[in-house]
Amino acid sequence: MLLLIIGICVAPVIASYLTYYVIKPRGGMTNYGELVEPQRPIPPDLHVQDEQGKDMLLSTLTGQWLMVAVNPSACDDACAQKLYFMRQVRLTQGAERERVRTVWLRTDADPVPDKVLKAYGGTRMLVADPAAVAGWLQAAPGTQDTDHIYLVDPNGNLMMRFPKNPDPSKMKSDLSKLLKINTGLGKPS
Questions:
Q1: How far apart are alpha carbons 103 and 150 in whole angstroms?
Q2: The dihedral of CA 176, 164, 134, 108: what is its sign?
Q3: Is 169 helix (H, G, I), strand (E, B) or coil?
Q4: What DSSP state is assigned to residue 73?
Q5: Strand partners, 162
Q6: Which SUPFAM superfamilies does the record match to this protein (predicted)?
Q7: Which of 78, 87, 62 is closest to 175 using CA atoms?
Q8: Domains contained in the chain, CATH given
Q9: Distance CA 7, CA 40 (A)
Q10: Rounded to an integer, what distance in angstroms lies between the CA atom of residue 66 and that of residue 152?
């Protein structure tokens, strides 16, 4: 009888050790976007051209959350959909939307179609060297950097990548959580 009581008391401890050390649960992952590990800071020498053709460092955009898309200036339907999702996800943040900036890194200096300029005028449309951007951004296996929407934190670290053809409501949820946790940082002064 004594051995049975000891067995009953020790069984949960043994089960917990087996579960933690042998089965190794992933635990608490609730994010939709894939975390980029390790985080990758914006390269300090990554030059882009702004909308007026002036040279600038991409790192000057730090201080806000950046949602970044990469595509050629022609902007096909997939590109337009990404720009639309970024704009809408930003707008759904309510008062916190000012902490988020949408950025389109164009891989060429061709003119942007007028319909895209009118629809996504609030998006920074910067021209960047595709090789330099590909060296910084990290596409998921089997995809290209033009397939994703990326999230850069206010410190300038690439920290999340959303999948190809993302679900905007899940993107909104991830961004809302990050903005809530990150209160006080990245607010415009």
A1: 10
A2: negative
A3: helix
A4: T
A5: 149
A6: Thioredoxin-like (SSF52833)
A7: 87
A8: 32-181 (3.40.30.10)
A9: 50
A10: 5
The pairing of strands 100-106 and 124-128 is parallel
Going by C-alpha positions, the residue among 60, 61, 58, 62 that lies closest to residue 48 is 58
User: Cα–chain-centroid distance for residue 99?
Assistant: 14
Residue that has been written with the tokens 């595509």 in this structure: 71
**Rg for the chain, CA atoms, rounded:** 22
pLDDT, tens digit, 9 for 90 and up, residues 118-145: 999 899 999 999 999 999 998 888 999 9
- Name the maximum alpha-carbon separation found in the chain: 84
What residue type is 100 in one-letter code?
A: V
- DSSP labels for 1-62? -HHHHHHHHHHHHHHHHHIIIII--------SSEEEEEEEEPPTT-EEE-TTS-EEEGGGGT
| Amino acid present at 155 | N
Q: What is the pTM of this model?
A: 0.81
Query: H or E stretch including 115?
Result: helix 114-119
Q: pLDDT digits over 31-50, tens only?
A: 899 999 899 999 999 999 99
pLDDT at 2 over 50: yes
- Token digits of residue 146: 């033009």
